[in-house]
Amino acid sequence: MGLLSLGTPLHWDEAKQHADHVRRNGISQFLSIYHKAKDRENDSLLWGEEVEYVVVSFDDEYHRARISVRVFEMLEVLQKAELEADTPEKQAQLQCLWRPEYGRFMLEATPGNPYGSKITDLLKVEPNMRLRRRLAIEQCKPNEVPMTITNFPLLGTPDSVDGHNTPDDPASKSLFLPDQVINPHARFPTLTANIRRRRGSKVAINMPIFHDTHTPRPFVDPTIPRTNLRFPEYDASDAQVDHIYMDAMGFGMGCCCLQITFQACNVDEARRLYDHLAPVSSIMLALTAATPLFRGYLANVDCRWKVISQAVDDRTDEERGLKPLQENRFRINKSRYDSIDSYLGSSDGLFKPQYNDLDLVYDPAIYQRLVEGGIDDLLAKHLAHLFIRDPLVIFKELLNVDNESSSDHFENLQSTNWQSTRFKPPPPNSPIGWRVEFRTMEIQFTDFENAAFTVFIVLLTRALLSYDLNFYIPITKMDTNIDVAHRPRAVLDEKFYFRKNIYTDKCDIAGLPEPAEPLTAESVDDEYELMTIDEIINGQEGGFVGLIPVINSYLDSLNINVETHCRINQYLNLVSKRANGELMTNATWIRQFVRNHPSYKQDSVISPEINYDLLTTIRRITAGELQPPELFASC
Ligand code: ADP
Ligand code: MG
Ligand code: MG
User: Fold this and answer.
1) From the UniProt record, which GO molecular function terms apply (predicted)?
2) Is the N or C terminus of the chain more exposed, i.e. has fewer CB atoms within 10 Å?
3) Who surrounds ion ligand 3 at CB < 5 A?
């Protein structure tokens, strides 16, 4: 996330009165940006990744691991170089940038400057990730470790927080998670409280429990207090049987991920990237799955995505369809954090209206204004959909800003629509161009794995653009894919909708693997089918060509030195073997570790001891002291 604005945040009761003001000016800001930037051409193919860490505090004497909420002390030092870089020359020298995140136990780091379009830039990722990890470790106490784990397995259990014992203030009203785990910057407690206030109740997250041989059936969680002693009205009535119940935004936004942002050469190319990367996002969620444990239990899911989705779901009962519409204007089928709802289309001419098969909810007045302001139908609908939401955090001092030089109101809505891919207009008056962010991947234990998945996505983007590939499938099929991606071992046991023929008339097929499918299909429904992730990634004998074979053709068409090619192959090998089951996902490995732990009682419970041993082992894997062959063999 970017640097944060400061000011006095408004309580929801007041903020909601300014919602239309923010939306109106947000649209003015977008129109201003759009008209200034729509003709930008030849922006270079810059890109960057974001890595998030949980800072874990180990107690080796009592075999406990807790989260450390000391990151602001660490950030003070980590951000020093950036704050002192007051000239473009100095900024160009920065090696990495540090940002706070939602959790007071989380760090986010990106490269100091985006990477460029040279193929050798791919090899800068892993050393830069290593450097970031080293710098973070330097700011840790000897017992603390910044870990690239998607979530902290015991978050929300008693005795899981190490550090400041600030008084509990009631932003989340959680039965499990004290406010002291939230970033204290006004934006975050306000976001937390305003989501709850807007919704009219605490957020309710229910993830299915994994029923092991000794897990009670039905599973009624004995650790859930029957009453909320401090805030009696915020009880556990939303807790579902056979589920792990969580009741605070921090359970979701306390998760870490690996995101990649690309700058396109112009707005049209950004729309193209947005559309074609979206169908890949659910596949990559399954392939990077790393989150089978929540609040001290083994879950029957492998990924974080739906936890975050439910953790920030600010829709009211009316909007969720539980009551007839009276106060609210729309029934809304998804949380603010979810898969994309519509494609944008581009001049590649591959978009068909049938792909936008979701009954899109959008604000007709905003749509009208955008169309009158010169925005085409698909982009206008995308924005008019994002703008059905209310702004959640409004700073009093920033209500009235200059719409030509500020994008605050636009960003207020844009940055709280957390979708699987994000279409990012340039900031006003900046050298930055149109960008697209790929947001679904789970963070992996090691820099090698995180670099591998980053490199894979970057190369896929290059192949997509150079060969004019086509990944379109209907939006609702993509939504199904996201659901399926959560299932344990989805990467091996499930099938996903994917386009059968990704080549187009414009592709120069010479040099690419032979397509098995004819180039044209009779109807949209003939264009896709269910495939395993192995088939999607590695290809199918006599069938789908496979994304890695296409990437390999792309690499063969370039003049790459042996050393670079060799390293890239190691990355692609990891992705390929995770897809075909020769190697495990992080989630499968964690699940197996827990189930084989000598003190595990086959009851789905992650004891503090199991948690400590698990995190200690991951810590050693990350440091390179252990290389479990089931995660990395012969890569
Ligand atoms: P967020 O929307 O997640 O807050 P930021 O704007 O902070 O994103 O950017 C995060 C990512 O974008 C980083 O990986 C960074 O390297 C990359 N990035 C920054 N500038 C550019 C650019 N001009 N083009 C492409 N990527 C960029
Ligand atoms: Mg982040
Ligand atoms: Mg990001």
Assistant:
1) ATP binding; glutamate-cysteine ligase activity
2) N
3) 50, 259
Q: Is residue 545 part of a domain?
A: yes
CA distance 270 to 468: 14
| Separation CA 567–CA 314 (nearest Å) | 45
Q: pLDDT-derived band of residue 559, with 50, 70 and 90 as boundaries?
A: confident
Distance in Å, CA 258 to ligand 2 centroid? 8
Q: What is the DSSP string of 481-503?
A: HHHHHTSTTHHHH--EEEES---
Distance 410 CA to ligand 3 centre (A): 17
Q: What is the pTM of this model?
A: 0.96
C-alpha 256 – ligand 2 centre gap (Å): 7
What average pLDDT does range 475-480 have in this prediction?
Answer: 97
Closest ligand (CA of 108): 2
CA-closest candidate to residue 136, choices 192, 196, 95, 182: 95
The per-residue pLDDT for 1 is 43
pLDDT at site 173: 85
Atom of ligand 1 nearest to the CA of 422: 2
Domain count, the chain: 1
> How does pLDDT run across 272-330, given as a tens digit for each residue?
999 999 999 999 999 999 999 999 999 999 999 999 999 999 999 999 999 999 999 99
Q: List Cα–Cα distances, 508 to 23, 221, 520, 540, in angstroms.
A: 45, 58, 16, 21
- Ligand 1: nearest atom to the Cα of 114: 16
**519 occurs within a structural domain:** yes
**386-421: pLDDT as tens digits:** 999 999 999 999 999 999 999 999 999 999 999 999
Tell me how far apart the alpha carbons of residues 163 and 345 are, in angstroms, rounded to a whole number. 49
If you measure from the C-alpha of residue 227 to the centroid of ligand 1, how many angstroms do you get, rounded to a whole number?
A: 44
Calculate the average pLDDT of the chain: 94
Say how many Å lie between the CA of residue 213 and the centre of ligand 1.
Answer: 46
Q: What is the pLDDT of residue 508?
A: 76
- Does 233 map to a domain? no
Domain annotation covers residue 102: no
As residues whose CB is below 5 A from the ion ligand 2, the structure lists 1, 108
Query: Ligand 1, atom 6: nearest CA belongs to which residue?
Result: 2
Question: Which pLDDT score, from 0 to 100, does residue 161 have?
Answer: 85
Sort strands 64-68 and 161-162 into parallel, antiparallel or unpaired: parallel
For residue range 531-545, what is the model confidence (pLDDT) as tens digits? 999 999 999 988 899
For residue 56, pLDDT over 60 is answered with: yes
Q: At residue 603, what is the residue type?
A: D
CA pair distance 624, 157, nearest whole angstrom: 30
SS3 assignment, position 6: coil
Say whether 111 sits in a helix, a strand or coil: strand
Tell me which residue of 130, 136, 100, 107 sits closest to 622, measured CA to CA.
130
Atom of ligand 1 nearest to the CA of 433: 23
Tell me how far apart the alpha carbons of residues 530 and 566 are, in angstroms, rounded to a whole number: 32
CA of 46 to the centre of ligand 3 (A): 15
Q: Whose CA is nearest to atom 19 of ligand 1?
A: 114
Domain that holds residue 517: 452-590
Percent of the chain with pLDDT over 70: 97
Ligand with smallest separation from the Cα of 255: 2
Any atom of ligand 1 within 6 Å of the Cβ of 1: yes
What pLDDT shows up at residue 517? 63
Distance (Å, whole) CA 440 – CA 425: 20
